[in-house]
Amino acid sequence: MTKWNLFFREKIKKIFEEKKSIIDIGGGLRVAKEKSNRYEKSREWLRVYIDKVDYKILDPVETYNPDIVGDIHDLPFDDTTQDAIICIAVLEHVENPIKAFEEMYRVLKKGGYLFVYVPFLYYYHSEKGYYGDFWRFTEDSLRWLSKPFSSYEIAPVRGAIETWIMLSPIGRLKFLNPMWQFIDRITRKVNSKQVSGYNLFLIK
Question: Cα separation of 8 and 181, whole Å?
Fold first, then answer.
């Protein structure tokens, strides 16, 4: 398993084991078929955790039957009331990601957890009538956004070679990914800043 997938599993597991209520903005975990516009079979391992906590999906529209309809720029929660927030592949689609980050910080309890994924070198991906595709994030921007939090960890997703391949037509051949990952490791491109995106874990 890749470093970024291990980071993802470790932090998401930590959230579900240590917090009682979790808000999944945008339904990015992709485990609730009935409450989201995406489903990812490989995330079924989360089901055992989700059934033990108060897990709710927040989305800006009713279309996909979320638990809560709300805007990330103006979250419908009082200050310091939320145990944990998951925000996967959302911030590139919102008009003001700085305001969104401020809102997530505002509503989290002291010691609350936040898990974020954002893209950097990634293809354009909007969904007409639902969301646009506005932003990309460098490691520098994430460190700046994370300043108000008591701690944060950043894990790059993919190395430079695999990222480059993913942006090309060859990237559709997923069975070749281990080869690109191997090349990234032996050429040390796995430590490059030219990555697909970042996983970010923060504690308020």
Answer: 17
Angle at 166 between CA 161 and CA 13, to 5 degrees: 90
Q: How many residues does the chain have?
A: 204
Q: What is the pLDDT along the chain (204 residues), one digit of tens a residue?
A: 899 999 999 999 999 999 999 999 999 998 877 776 677 788 888 888 888 999 999 999 988 889 999 999 999 999 999 999 999 999 999 999 999 999 999 999 999 999 999 999 999 999 888 899 999 999 999 999 999 999 999 999 999 999 999 999 998 998 999 999 999 999 999 889 999 999 999 999
3-state SS class at 172: helix
Three-state DSSP at 64 gives coil
Residue holding tokens 């990309």? 136
Please state the pTM of the whole predicted model.
0.94
Distance (Å) of CA 120 to CA 6, 71, 148, 193: 20, 23, 22, 9
All domains of the chain in start order, with CATH: 3-203 (3.40.50.150)
Q: How far out from the chain centre does Cα 64 lie?
A: 19
Number of neighbours of residue 19 by Cβ within 10 angstroms: 18
Q: Give the residue ranges of DSSP H helices in 89-159.
A: 97-107, 139-145
CB atoms within 10 A of CB 123: 10
In one-letter notation, the amino acid at residue 65 is: N
